[in-house]
Every structure is written in C-alpha cells, then in structure tokens.
Amino acid sequence: MALHSFTSFSPENRRLIYLLSGCHLLWCAAVFLLYLLGDMLPVQSILLNGVFLLLQLFAAAQLLLPVLLLHPEDRSRGFYIFWGFILSAAIWLLHQFPATTWLATLQSGLLLLTGTLVGAALARYVKRLWELIPVCLAMTLADFASWSVGPTAIFSEQIKQHYLDPTGPPPLIDMILVKLAFPGATGVTPVFGISDWIMVVFFAIVAHRHKINDNLLGPEGEKLARRRQIGRYLPVSLLALTGAILLAQTSGLFLPALPLIALVMLLWYGLRHIRVKRFS
User: Fold this and answer.
1) What are the residue ranges spanned by the domains of the chain?
2) Which residues, other chains included, contact 168 with Cβ-Cβ below 8 Å and sequence gap of 6+?
3) Backbone torsions φ then ψ of 205, nearest 5 degrees
4) In this predicted structure, what is the pLDDT of residue 3?
5) CA–CA distance, 222 with 218 (Å, rounded to integer)
6) From 2, 7, 39, 192, which residue has the greatest number of CB atoms within 10 Å?
7) E strand spans, the chain
C-alpha cells in the first residue's frame, strides 16, 4: 500500500509523464542525428557551433510544454525521496556502461528529464514572486563560491583534462553534465550541468504558476501546450542559459551559468514590474 502511494498518479498526469518521457527519447534521437551530421561536416566554425547549440536547446525548451499541464497533487516527503533515489540510480547505472555516443546522449536526455521533474517540484514552494530574490541571491553566491574556491573549480579542471586527453574512465562529475552535439566533435560534448537545467525549469514553472507569460515568442506556454503547438516556446530562463553558454564558448573560459540566469531573471521581473506599474 505504501509503495502504491509512491507510484500512483492521476490518469491525466500519468499520460503527461509518459508523453514527457517519450519526447525526451525523441530529443535524444535528434541530438544523435545531429552528431552524425556534424561528423560529416568537414568545416568547424563558431557560427556553425552556435547553430547546433541553438537547435538543441530550443528543442529542449519544447520538452517543457507537457510539464505546464501537470495537475498539482499532494505528495509526501517520502514520495520525493523515492523518485529521487530511482532517478539518481538510473543516472548512475547508465554511467557504469562503456562510454558510447548514443549512451551519452541517452544519459543527457535522462538528466534533462530528471532536472525537469526536480525543477517543477521545487517551483511548487514559491508562493510569492518576491521569494525569487533570496533564491537568486543564494544560488549566485553558492555558485560563485563553488566556482572560485570550491568543488566546481576542481571538477572543471578534471573535465577539461579528460576531454583533452580521454584516457581512462571519465571523472564522476561527468555523470551529471548534459552533453550536446557539435560539428567535428568525436562525440557529444559536455555543455552544462543538471543544476542549470533545474533552475531553467524552476523559473519557467514559477512564471506559469503565477500566470506570467515568460514566452518570448508569443502566447503562454500552457496555451501552446493545450493547442499542441510546438516550436513557439522560448522561456526567458532558457535564453539566459543560452547566453551563459555562448559567453563561455566565445571567451574560452569555464563560467558558471547560474549567476547569469539569476541576474537575467531578476532584471526581467524588475522591468516587467515597472512596465505593469506604468500602464496600470
């Protein structure tokens, strides 16, 4: 009976979770096809890298649409612990197999799926929009501290050394890095961490729950999801992540994405508040 309470969902939510899982598999297949295409391209360029990056991130944004239709369900702490353990175990298990490009792509899809579910769960606890201010400050300070003197500085050097000279097993941190396809690469390349995607989803769901349209390409994401219209959803938080990745790639430096995401979201909400006050 206790296990049933962890695994049962309403019929509508169950259908949406199946849809979400299937869409992530399709995203994995699309990334793998881009990898095969990139492997055939003889020329590498910053522009082409940017096109590949934008295509994969924009496709990932469309994966959020089913989440916007999930109905809230009262869940216990044990429910989140149970599914956190299941998803973490699945990520760890995939990491134990011999590394292949397809397996790395599958692992990236699983990381996106896990990050989406975690971000959606965390967004439920934001009752007022002003609560985003301490969230943004905390994530910025924590990420900067980790990047400058903490574990992120060590992990980034380990990842850099491994992909420059890929001998031996990858470092453990590689397990939670989302990898994307780029022209001329021998495999998919780590681009951002699961924590970055969690916050992208978190800000998108918070906007949705507070009836705020954060879609830069038109109607609210929920309306697009109900109309089954894909290819028109670009939340502000994803644009912030894209900007952070492009900045890191063009500068050649390992830069933390979370502070830039937090800054963009605070500026966007601030400008939106000023505009609303002006026209009210």
Assistant:
1) 2-279
2) 162
3) -70, -35
4) 60
5) 11
6) 192
7) 177-180, 189-193
Residue 169 to residues 98, 159, 165, 182: CA-CA distances in angstroms? 9, 11, 11, 22
For the segment 15-64, what is each residue's pLDDT rounded down to a tens digit? 999 999 999 999 999 999 999 998 887 667 788 888 999 999 999 999 99
Question: Three-state SS for 97?
Answer: coil
Cβ 192 vs Cβ 207: under 8 Å: no
Task: Report the alpha-carbon distance of residue 21 to residue 53 in Å, rounded.
Answer: 22
Taken in order 88, 158, 202, 13, the sign of the CA dihedral is negative
- Indicate the SS3 state at residue 143: helix
Q: Which amino acid is at 134?
A: P
Q: Using the Cα atoms of residue 133, residue 137, residue 142 and residue 143 in order, give the sign of their dihedral.
A: positive
d(CA 149, CA 9): 43
Q: DSSP readout, 186-225?
A: SS-EEEEEHHHHHHHHHHHHHHHHTT---BTTSS-HHHHH
Residue-wise pLDDT tens digits, 58-83: 999 999 999 999 888 777 788 888 88
Residue-wise burial string across 148-172, b where 16 or more C-beta atoms lie within 10 A, e elsewhere: eeeebeebbeebeebeeeeeeebee
DSSP 150: S
3-class SS at 15?
helix
CA dihedral 189, 53, 197, 186 (to 10 degrees): -10
